[in-house]
Amino acid sequence: MYWNEKYERLPQSEIKALQLERLKQTVELCYYCVPHYRQAMQELNLEPDQIKSLDDLQRLPFTTKSDLRDNYPYGMFAVPLSEVVRIHSSSGTTGKPTVVGYTRNDLNTWSELMARSLACGGAIKGDVIHNAYGYGLFTGGLGVHYGAERLGLSVIPISGGNTKRQIMIMKDYGSTVLTCTPSYALFLAEVMREMGYKKDDFKLKIGVFGAEPWSDNMRKEIEEKLGIVALDIYGLSEIIGPGVAIECPEKQGLHIWEDHFIAEIIDPDTGEVLPPGEQGELVITSLTKEALPMLRYRTRDITRLITEPCACGRTHKRLYRFSGRTDDMLIIRGVNVFPSQIESVLLEIGQTEPHYLLIIDREGNMDTLEVQVEVSMTDFSDEVRRLESLERTIRAAIESTLGVTVKVKLVEPKTIERSEGKAKRVIDKRQI
Amino acid sequence: MKVKQISIFLENKSGRLNAVTNLLAEKGINIRALSIADTSAFGILRLIVNDPERAYKELKEAAFTVSLTDVLGVEMPDKPGGLAMVMDILTEAGINIEYLYAFISSDQGKAMVIFRVENLDEAIECLLKEGIRVVDGETLYKM
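Output (structure tokens, whole complex):
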């Protein structure tokens, strides 16, 4: 199902022409309206009119998450706040949050792309969509919501939590489309079974899952347990939110909407653009964003570009399913976690050694995070209740910083493995 | 009047207690009394030894998380009501006990109880006032 057949099937030559025209506009907008971009371009002796072809894209500076943080909160906006009708934000877990803004046109674009994405998955008017992405500052919930309304679906804005009630609603309201993280989909399947339901008790037929990496094995399991077609969706708030790229039912990569974004794959170490088909870091340039235009944003996600035509008829290039990240970011229950955040929490509390180990596992389809912390050699209390209260203090501090529940375990000093004097920080046991 | 107790943090995993007892054996340190407080994740081993300063040093060098804690060694008759009498005094004085453990003294007919309380000096004072013997460290280590 196409939502916007003309654009979804636009020949590559026309896509390229459109990209160039829009790239020039975006570069101008960035140069004249965002001091950060102007300065970055001036440092490279680059003026907007020097961008004459799509190949000139490579001459533009990269943008990183820290650029957004350095310009916190609104410094990267290219329009006055009076034109911004929506603000989303990251949880601000590694220092300052990143703030993203949308003009009315931006929301329109986002809805359009999300509508295309849901239609691509097979959703049509008449479907009931159970949107279990979190609503709020996170772009997941509202992003899907507006796209689903645009497409004409009946939206149940259930958000996260209260799984049994979710299942009752899904069953009684006859939900046909499910949107959430893939691990939550599996958790829902588990709880359905515990409640004594079979997949035939539900009308579900399509699932659109994202916000965390997942494998084809996990897809098979979800499809089997829920009796649906499960598709991968990609997006990030810095670019627009969910709906940047989506798998079609061919399940051979995610189409990135090239009339709105340009995807490049670079070598994360040298910054050099890699030829099509090679694996590297995904870099995205926005072409139609007004409030927060993005020049060559480094996503830190690792993938490769598929340029061959797709059997589904869409002409937009595809991204191979993501295989990891170039930084140490972990995604735990859909929440982005950097090990350094845990370090700063421990240093702040100050009653333990700064050595820690994160053990991530998956129990019953839900991610678990255990934080092992070395007890301080010098400041050790021999009373159980003091140590237990230290455990609780650390747990509460980490949970409020990360926004995910953790288990804290105090361990003996020097027991956390060090390699080359540096502690090994993360053990990820998840099989995904 | 105070007794030096060795406290060691141990993770709940096999071989940890053994590592401590082996080290002490190797260094010729004798254990007079011991107790373990445990939770699901860790334990705290508390020891009265013949030479606490040296035991502390050796354990520290072997990278154990160890501390020296002041506790009280209280002597009482080894018969029904012996501990009750001491507890009455402490309760009366409003002294809270963090933990305690007991062993039978080599001195015939006597029992020893090791107390960890919030305010050691206050506890000593009120026990002495009631005629209870509070054993000093040196005596206990050599017992």
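The two ends of chain A are 29 Å apart (CA to CA).
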